[in-house]
Amino acid sequence: MAKGKLRAVRWSKGTVHLLEQRVLPFREKWLKCDTVEKVAKGIEDMSVRGAPAIGITAAYGVAVAAVRSKAKTTAQFDKEISGAIARLRKTRPTAVNLFWALDRMDECLKAVAVLPVSDQKRALEKEAFDIHAEDEALCERLGQHGSKLLAKAKNVLTHCNTGALATGGDGTALAAITQAAKKNKKLHVWVDETRPYLQGARLTAYEVAHAGIDFHLITDNMAAFLMKQKKVDAIIVGADRIVANGDTANKIGTYALAIMAKAHGIPFYVSAPTTTLDLTKKTGDEIEIEQRNPREVTHPQGVPIAKEDYPVYNPAFDVTPGHLITAIVLETGICRAPYQKSLRVALNKEQKGRA
Ligand code: MRU
Predict the structure, then answer these.
(1) CATH number at residue 39
(2) Which of 162, 280, 303, 335 is most buried, by the most CB atoms less than 10 A from its CB?
């Protein structure tokens, strides 16, 4: 992995190290996860979050189980690793990258089952490391493609967090912004605070400031007012799951932004690696939306703003219909409607390149 850069996940000697995102931007603290349970909790409790980062962490979780296993036989080893994969699958339901990474670890386990246990351990550790390294390279390509779409924009709005903290590299949507900002020093970013978990205020603002890009933090309900004043030229967000017709699950509030963008004639872009595609699902109605703890709404960052016994509805994601998305940026290039066709072509291209 690239040294000296902002990174969310590191692997060292059988331990996953997570940059504890719950205390950012005020403190930089690393969480050591040396058991599968600690890794699973790290994902569930959002010490690490963001679709690609969750997938990478889960893959390392399997590697933790493998490297630290005391199993003497392949049957014992297989049982332990399959158990670890099953536990990690239950952490968060919406981002498909988690399941993609765990499927890949499971395929690796099956492919090396004929080898001695010591070799199987090494193979699983390498597979997790490869998943991480590949994501880092994907981010670079996403940034290159996405920045072309932002070439003429002066003011770009983004939602949630899609940078280094959410991925294995420099990000998805945020990589497009940072690469565009290298060419256009006047680029300015509107950072949505992203209620209720405040990924924008706590994490994206931190990353954009770290990159030295001009920005303003806004609350989510200010976006339409800015658009009306022609102060937003483009919107770019990440994704947690993109299905066959282009419907895209992303952080709650994304759908509202896409509707506002349509109403104001502003392009609305989604940027994600092909590991975020789930073409087994036809429409967004099939995506499971995670419901989170009511306290995230009544006690943001632990601060009470409403009575804790109030009934609360707290879906973590919404689904933006494909027809509201101007383009989807993948590492293979830029896809436009009809997404049924363009996403399939992109995925085939990616799979051919891998074969
Ligand atoms: O609940 P989170 O913080 O894991 O949600 C993250 C998002 O919705 C991101 O926008 C998405 O994962 C894209 S990450 C590059």
Answers:
(1) 1.20.120.420
(2) 162
